[in-house]
Recover the amino acids of this structure.
């Protein structure tokens, strides 16, 4: 992460540490990433193996950034969200 200028607009650094699809493509095994994309695009079920790979990658990335707490928001089928820390 780059140094944050305390006077810079938030838009200059917002989301810089987000574990998005680009980061996932780099960090996940190819089969887990492909399963995730199919889940997002086609609504296919995410395999338990892929979910474990994704969770481990999130944990590793978080540790690289010295995070102590992880938050994931999960969208449910009925459109609600569930929060897990």
């Amino acid at each position: 992460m780059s140094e944050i200028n305390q006077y810079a607009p938030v838009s200059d650094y917002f989301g810089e540490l987000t574990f998005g699809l680009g980061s996932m493509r780099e960090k996940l095994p190819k089969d887990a990433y492909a399963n995730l994309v199919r889940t997002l695009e086609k609504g296919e079920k995410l395999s338990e193996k892929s979910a474990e790979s994704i969770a481990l990658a999130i944990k590793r990335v978080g540790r690289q950034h010295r995070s102590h707490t992880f938050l994931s928001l999960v969208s449910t089928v009925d459109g609600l969200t569930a929060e897990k820390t």
